[in-house]
Each structure stands twice: as structure tokens, then as C-alpha cells.
Write a structure and sequence with these properties.
- By secondary structure, the chain is mainly alpha-helical.
- The protein folds into two domains: about 40 residues; about 160 residues, no CATH class.
- The chain is about 70% helix and about 5% strand.
- It is built from eight helices and three strands.
- α3 packs antiparallel against α4, α3 crosses α8 and α6 runs antiparallel to α8.
Length: about 220
């Protein structure tokens, strides 16, 4: 049995720990360190697998180049990267908080991270490692639709990783995989937000949703 206060306390603890990490980071590296991370070391292009970068690849690949450790295309700047991060971070934190409040931790995790990735100027395949565990958590919490959508997004990311060289050559199949994966992230974020909005918060004395026990034969 677990009341609503327990998820709230855990979320508050996580936020406090995160703020401590950020404070330590600022103390060691200063504001410029945080700026370098959020803007991907001041990169001025969209990574080719990102939402905007993949669309740019459809029309013009002439500006594609290796920049700040990643293949990028088109033009952007630091303020735009920061704006996109803020626009994604606010609903991301809401989904994570709401997931803890309603007993849908996996859904909040999957929705929040998928939105961050969808809005990011850099979407490397390894970032799916942040998303993959949420599929198992959502499945255990009986949020089957979210679990399946998350699994599909991770699977498509694996296909995109294996098709990276053809993607740089502009191969239609590779580009289609990336575009579909990015749309799947948007669908996942939308479905997660909708489920969380409709879910009632856990109340004092209400049990946290448990995995169903197998029936005796």
C-alpha cells in the first residue's frame, strides 16, 4: 500500500538531487559549460537524424558536413537550441511528475524522453538507451500501448543506426526509416501525455498498480 505522498516525496527528492548536480556543474564549469552542453558545443547545424535535420535532408544535402563530432546539415544557432530545449523540458518534467503521481512511471519516462529527443537538434542513435528501459517499466505497469510504441521507436532507431552510411548518401530507404522513427517519437509523446492527463492521481491508502499474478491452473 502506498499513498500519494510517497511518489510526491520521491519526485521532490529527484528534483532536489538534480538541482544539486546542476549547482555543482555550474560551480565547476561555470555558465559557459552549461551553454556548451545545451548548444552541443556551439554547433550551427542540425544533426542529420534529428527531426529538422532529417526533413532538411529531403530537399538539400549540399550543406551537410561533420561538425562538433556529428554529421550536420543546414543552419541553426545557440539560442534556437536553448529555446527548443526549454520547450521540451517543461512538458517533459510534467510527464515525469505526472507519471509518479498517477502510478504510470514508465509512461511518464517514455513520454518525457521521447519529447526531448523529438525536439533536440542532435538525435544520435545511442540516445535510445535513455528510452529503452521505459518500455519494460510501462509493460509491468500494464501500459501496453506505451510499451509497444516505445519498443518500436527503439527498434527503428536500431535500423537507422545500421543504415547510417546510406543515409549520408541520401538513400530513400534510410531517410524514410529516420523520418518514421522521428514521427514515432512524436506519437509516443502525444499518447503518453494523453494517458497521463486522463489518469487520476494516487490517493492516500490507494495501492500502487501491481503486476497481475498468474492464476492457478
Amino acid at each position: 500500500m502506498c499513498g500519494a505522498g510517497a511518489p510526491g516525496r520521491k519526485f521532490a527528492t529527484a528534483i532536489a538531487a538534480g538541482l544539486m548536480v546542476v549547482a555543482g556543474w555550474l560551480w565547476v564549469a561555470g555558465p559557459s559549460g552549461l551553454y556548451q552542453v545545451v548548444t552541443f558545443r556551439g554547433a550551427r547545424g542540425w544533426e542529420v537524424e534529428s527531426t529538422i535535420g532529417a526533413v532538411w535532408m529531403l530537399f538539400d544535402r549540399s550543406s551537410m558536413r561533420l561538425e562538433s563530432g556529428a554529421w550536420r546539415i543546414g543552419t541553426t544557432n545557440g539560442p534556437i537550441s536553448i529555446l527548443l530545449f526549454v520547450l521540451a523540458a517543461v512538458p517533459c518534467l510534467w510527464m515525469i511528475w505526472r507519471g509518479g503521481r498517477t502510478g504510470h512511471v514508465g509512461t511518464g519516462w517514455a513520454g518525457g524522453i521521447s519529447l526531448l529527443l523529438f525536439m533536440s537538434a542532435l538525435l544520435s542513435p545511442q540516445f535510445s538507451a535513455w528510452l529503452a528501459p521505459a518500455s519494460g517499466v510501462a509493460w509491468a505497469e500494464k501500459d501496453r500501448r506505451i510499451a509497444v510504441l516505445t519498443g518500436i521507436a527503439v527498434f527503428l532507431t536500431n535500423l537507422a543506426f545500421k543504415s547510417f552510411a546510406p543515409l549520408l548518401r541520401g538513400a530513400p530507404r534510410a531517410l524514410t526509416i529516420v523520418l518514421v522513427r522521428n514521427m514515432m517519437l512524436a506519437v509516443l509523446a502525444f499518447e503518453a501525455a494523453r494517458l497521463l492527463r486522463r489518469s487520476a492521481p494516487l490517493t492516500t491508502g490507494s495501492p500502487v498498480p501491481q503486476r497481475a499474478q498468474p492464476e492457478d491452473e
